[in-house]
Amino acid sequence: MAAKKKLNSGVEIVVVLVLLTCAPSCIHSADDNRLLVNMTLVPNSTASALGAFCLDGSLPAYHLHRGFGAGARNWLLQFEGGGWCNDIPSCLDRAKSRRGSTSLMAKWLVFSGILSNNASLNPDFYNWNRVKIRYCDGASFAGNATLDDGKSLLYFRGQKIWQAILTDLLPKGLANAEKALLSGCSAGGLAVFLHCDNFINFLPRTASVKCLSDGGFFLDVSDIALNHTMRSFYKNLVQLQGIEQNLNPNCTKSLDDPELCFFPQYALKYIETPFFVLNSAYDVFQFHHGLAPPSADIHGQWNRCSFNPAACNANQIDVLQGFRNDMLAALQSRLDGMFVNSCFAHCQSESQDTWFADDSPRIHDKTIAEAVGDWYYNRRVTKEIDCPYPCDSSCHNLIPEIK
């Protein structure tokens, strides 16, 4: 149970605004000129017609910052991340938190990294329409079920939330998009794999549509105790939230166990839309929860290594290098672009420090922002793979504290 609770944890930026005398769609903080963008709720009429509700029944939401100039008809949509819930107790807990209810979320978000409106910080996408899709279903926007046992009511409606938000954005300009990029981080990065090909169906046939997953390439691998912790977790999730019906049908037909198509490594080769994977070869979320979860490390032999790669012994480094090899092998499917570095991190497109800054991580002297921009605009082939740890001195090893 401890491992499952930790799988539901996430990282957030909480923005507290003490005084607002008006309600613009965005403001700039006086302290550091951060771009803060206000929340938009999907109208109740749209949500009700589709049955699109967060776990607790609240309305879906997103944050939109309008594009301008040459980017006025280009759209970047980013799924928010934040773990999953795969059983009734964890989903009930989640429904009482910001991860399951828009009524409990911060109403303003910082737009940075790939969402920045500053040309010097986000050179290729700064003037696009940029949307952050809030995450409140606990299943990477993929479920379609309801739990009502007379005691509890939970809405597993991630698929409907996705449809409702697109429905609300289409008349705001998305229906006339010339260029579009669907992105997401962590559980949101996994959502990109699930919805990439579907996204293109909402847009003009002439639009240039591509997809970017950041920290969402979750692997189906055994942990240090030779258990399939992530596989078991995902199978329970797929069954609880009615996800199988929304998985790629070509993938589900090809596997004896169709629920495995929730894993990106199985779904990727069936995605037809141009796709870019941004991932650390030593993704810390997968390291902590899939490779060396507490349930598999009952004596705590991996504790020091988990929080400080320099403290890993030779055998632990071998295990980590094996995980990297598994990831690279899984990425040999049809893929248009990638940036796989050797940093101990998870999600690198949302933070300005890792997206595009003077000391950002680099592969072959190329930042993540430059690699993604080159790929999207077809400036050059972009398949950047880092050398194994510890060769990369540009890394930001962002290892979160596990609580």
From TrEMBL:
Name the record gives this protein: Pectin acetylesterase
EC category: hydrolase
Record InterPro entries: PAE/NOTUM
UniProt organism field: Acer yangbiense
Family: Belongs to the pectinacetylesterase family.
GO BP terms in the entry: cell wall organization
GO molecular function: hydrolase activity
Principal location: secreted
